[in-house]
Design a protein that fits this description.
globular; 27 helices; two-stranded antiparallel sheet; alpha+beta; about 625 residues
Length: about 625
């Protein structure tokens, strides 16, 4: 978005920070903050059941085409951006009209008016400076400017992106919603393949072409990405280095890698061979090092000890461990670079399920009642069946379907109607019981339903899966533990709520519901400082970039020092404040605390996230 030193879009010839972007906080500007709020609030648009059905249909289609390469979160993001800005351009324009009515900032109004043109572009980078990519459409005549952020690569040759048109003082810019940058090695082949799709297409304009064929183009990119890595191995690796890859491939064929993991391993090996030029005689040593890296960084669900990996490749642990550590350092270096140069992604909290859960549940039902000889056979069957309207086969399935409809309902009245229908179909359904807690003011009645939900969930829980969360029928039970824990937390029953949250953490090891912070907060509130410290240490690796983690660490240190402002206390608060500077004001004013939300995506560093953190303190 627009920087502080850019000319103000209002046309005043002043720079942003001295004009429409002026604020009291250094490093920020009013234009950027208002535009971020407009974008973030758009994703909270409530959809009707029929609109949700269309979005879920897209998720199913794209998942079938791209699921082999894209992780679920990336897939959901890409589909959501495509739906909200391209398929439902009308919703976006209505949202902008409302936003225009709420602001008098001249620069913001100028940008919002140009933002009405959302489109997909496939453009060539004709020139690049430190601040700007100069773009020319490959399938059209349009030319525009794209801001280049610090740390972005120099070898970008083409960009595929969903963008918003942005006129700034008679210059045509685009602001990317989501984008894929392609380097020289891939760009020629990609351009050729996209042009081939365009030649066969019957669409008369580029908007309709990209609207219809975006998923086809994404598939081209994913396949080229794999192909490009294979070409790198073939063309640039020495015979001994290629033997490393062959040995590694043979072992990985027996493993199930997560999407993108294999590409990451090959990329790291390419870096290691070219940049470090490691000395080795046995290719098994480097293959073992890469395999161990995949284990250490959870690129695969199966785990192995170092001794087991050494035996698998017939080498010693000491011979490969140093290579693994160097590769791991490179991953950490890349992650730090990305974190420094990239805007932090929103994260989800809430008691309601994500919109994708219903699709996962339906796929599970389809898979469970059929036996397939190959993965391809299963994928083809599910892709065909998932397009058909879902027909429940029994009362239990009908109840769960109605629960998902309740969670996705547009109004509270519809939510209640669907929930009552679900409870009537199956009064033992976990989600149906959880929804019933919303329709009574009696604490005793609410707790009765929570207890029934947890009891029922325990009976239905399948503990055979390595990750409980990945098995969709388990999620209502995990949701029940979370909701019952939150209910007790808000009643001030912290000993019981901490027990519930800790139980949830031992069941869902990857903490998909962010229960760890609720557990730590509950333990601090009941004075269990030692146990709170243990949980903090256990989740440090996955939490050190979170403002909530550091504010809780500060709170814990304050408790240990009986409220005294020691140097360590102040150090922790400063660290927390860097990640979200808005929490301090809520603390000093003892602001009202809100209840835990049903569903919200929080952008790190915002006021909205600050209220969530304040809820925990």
């Amino acid at each position: 978005m627009i920087g502080n030193k850019a000319n103000c879009p209002c046309g005043s010839d002043e720079i942003v920070e001295n004009c429409c972007g002026k604020t009291n906080e250094p490093g920020t500007n009013q234009i950027r903050e208002e535009l971020k709020r407009v974008l973030n609030s758009y994703y909270e648009t409530k959809l009707s059941p029929s609109e949700i059905q269309v979005l879920e249909g897209l998720l199913k289609e794209w998942g079938g085409r791209l699921g082999e390469w894209m992780e679920e979160e990336e897939l959901v993001t890409n589909v959501s951006d495509y739906y909200f800005f391209i398929v439902r351009k009308d919703l976006w324009r209505r949202h902008l009209v409302k936003a225009l009515n709420r602001t008098q900032n001249k620069a913001v109004r100028a940008i919002l008016k140009s933002w009405q043109n959302a489109f997909i572009t496939f453009a060539e980078v004709t020139e690049a400076s430190k601040e700007v990519y100069y773009m020319k459409e490959i399938l059209g005549e349009g030319e525009y400017l794209l801001a280049r952020e610090p740390g972005e690569p120099e070898d970008v040759r083409a960009v595929l992106a969903i963008v918003l048109e942005e006129y700034r003082n008679d210059e045509r810019w685009v602001m990317p919603i989501s984008a894929i940058a392609v380097n020289q090695h891939m760009s020629d082949e990609m351009i050729s393949r996209v042009q081939a799709i365009a030649e066969k297409s019957e669409e008369s304009n580029s908007f309709e072409f990209f609207k219809k064929h975006l998923v086809d183009i994404y598939e081209v990119v994913c396949k080229l990405d794999v192909q490009t890595l294979s070409d790198v191995v073939e063309q640039n690796f020495t015979p001994l280095q290629r033997e490393v890859v062959e040995i590694l491939d043979a072992k990985l064929e027996e493993e199930e890698l997560y999407p993108g993991a294999y590409e990451m391993l090959l990329s790291l090996l390419a870096y290691y061979f070219t940049d470090q030029n490691p000395k080795f005689r046995k290719p098994e040593v480097l293959a073992a090092a890469a395999f161990q890296l995949a284990v250490d960084t959870t690129m695969m669900p199966t785990t192995y000890t170092q001794a087991e990996v050494a035996k698998m490749f017939d080498v010693s642990v000491s011979s490969f461990r140093k290579h693994t550590d160097i590769l791991a350092d490179k991953i950490q270096e890349l992650e730090q670079m990305m974190e420094k140069n990239s805007p932090r992604a929103p994260y989800h909290i809430g008691t309601d399920p994500l919109a994708t859960e219903q699709m996962n549940w339906q796929v599970h039902l389809l898979s469970a009642k059929n036996e397939f000889e190959t993965f391809e056979e299963a994928q083809a069957f599910i892709q065909e069946e998932i397009q058909k309207p879902f027909e429940p086969e029994n009362q239990q399935q009908e109840a769960q379907m109605l629960c998902y409809m309740a969670y996705n309902a547009e109004t509270d009245e519809q939510r209640r109607d669907f929930a009552e229908g679900a409870y009537g179909a199956d009064p033992t359904n976990v989600d149906a019981l959880l929804l019933q807690t919303e329709f009574t003011d009696s604490k005793d009645e609410q707790e009765k339903f929570f207890k029934q939900a947890v009891f029922s969930g325990e009976k239905q829980f399948d503990n055979r899966a390595e990750s409980a969360w990945n098995l969709a029928p388990n999620r209502p039970y995990l949701r029940g533990l979370l909701q019952y824990g939150i209910w007790m937390y808000e009643q001030g029953r912290f000993a019981e709520s901490s027990e519930m949250f800790l139980r949830l953490l031992t069941t869902d090891l990857y903490d998909h519901q962010n229960a760890r912070y609720l557990a730590i907060s509950s333990l601090i509130r009941q004075g269990e400082i030692g146990q709170a410290e243990q949980v903090m240490q256990a989740c440090a690796e996955i939490s050190e970039g979170d403002a909530a983690y550091w504010y809780l660490a500060w709170t814990l240190e304050m408790e240990k020092n009986k409220g005294e402002n020691t140097a360590r206390v102040m150090e922790l608060f400063e660290k927390a404040e860097q990640l979200n500077p808005h929490v301090g004001a809520l603390i000093h004013t003892s602001a009202k605390k809100f209840s835990y939300p049903r569903s919200v995506d929080l952008v790190p560093g915002t006021h909205e996230e600050a209220h969530y953190i304040w809820y925990l303190l």
